[in-house]
Amino acid sequence: MTERTDLGPEDQKIVTLARSARARNGVPEGAAVRDETGRTYVAGTVSLASLELSALRTAVAMAVASGAQSLEAAAVVSEAPSLPDADLAAVRDLGGPGTPVFLAGPDGTVHRATEA
Predict the structure, then answer these.
(1) How far apart are CA 97 and CA 108, in angstroms?
(2) pLDDT, tens only, 74-112
(3) Architecture of domain 9-115
(4) Are strands 40-44 and 46-47 parallel, antiparallel or unpaired?
(5) How confident is the model at residue 2 (pLDDT cuts 50, 70, 90)?
(6) What are the two backbone dihedrals, phi and then psi, of residue 98, each rounded to the nearest 5 degrees?
(7) Which of 2, 4, 31, 53 sits CB 3.0–4.6 Å from 110 for a disulfide?
(8) 3-state DSSP call for residue 1?
(9) Which helix (H) or strand (E) holds 14?
(10) Beta strand spans in 61-108 (E)
(11) 42: which strand partners?
């Protein structure tokens, strides 16, 4: 994995939002996405008896439910070394192929940048 320190301010903002969602809610993952208008949607992992959603899929669902037409970028803060294909597919469904997705550790350091 390559550590990323060259994020622009808007990308760093969604990493920070994802990190705060994870910490505030005490969940395994926090995520944030930015839509085509610059609005951000922040979510944590959903774990109910009848519903399991990753933080990233929850954030994408929130964006769709709020009328977003596309995504500019996404970020996840997690201890996981990589993101599931289903998470990347959700970002790709709304943002299109090539949408940047940043994976950071709990300290907020981005360890992986990939495209949906």
Answers:
(1) 25
(2) 999 999 999 999 999 999 999 999 999 999 999 999 999
(3) 3-Layer(aba) Sandwich (3.40)
(4) unpaired
(5) very low
(6) 95, -5
(7) 4
(8) coil
(9) helix 9-25
(10) 71-77, 100-104
(11) 32
Q: Residue 25 and residue 8: Cα distance in Å, rounded?
A: 26
Cα separation, 6 vs 27, whole angstroms: 27
- pLDDT above 90: residue 47: yes
Q: In this model, does residue 116 exceed pLDDT 80?
A: yes
Q: Contact at 8 Å (CB) between 21 and 43? A: yes
Task: Provide the whole-model pTM.
Answer: 0.93
* Chain CA centroid to CA 78, Å: 10
pLDDT (average), residues 44-57: 97
d(CA 116, CA 103) in angstroms, rounded, equals: 12
* 85-89 long-range contacts, CB within 8 A, separation 24+: 86/54, 86/57, 87/54, 87/56, 87/57, 88/114, 88/116, 89/116
Residue 46, both tokens: 């959903």
Euclidean distance between CA atoms 75 and 101, whole angstroms: 5
pLDDT of 53-80, one tens digit each?
999 999 999 999 999 999 999 999 999 9
